[in-house]
Amino acid sequence: MKIIPTLINKIKNLDEKTKKIMEKGYAFCFLLCILASFTLFTYEVLYCNPVLFYIGISLFRTSLMFACTFFMCAIGFDTIKKERI
Hints:
It contains three helices and no strands. By secondary structure, it is mostly helical. The longest helix is centred in the C-terminal third of the chain and has 35 residues, at 50-84. The two termini are 28 Å apart.
């Protein structure tokens, strides 16, 4: 099975609107990841409140889940859109 070449081919053949939405979603996830890193860095330096650690880890996990969701939904939406045409 050639899963990775198939995924790369699907990403290259995405509709322009879908690709733009996916790129903006990745930018949003990147900003969330930077915020999570800053929160975890603040916890590491100050160690004042363990809630900072949980907030940072939750933000990091959320950003990773959003990135995976944007990827899967973009491919799924594009596949459904091309089947309708």
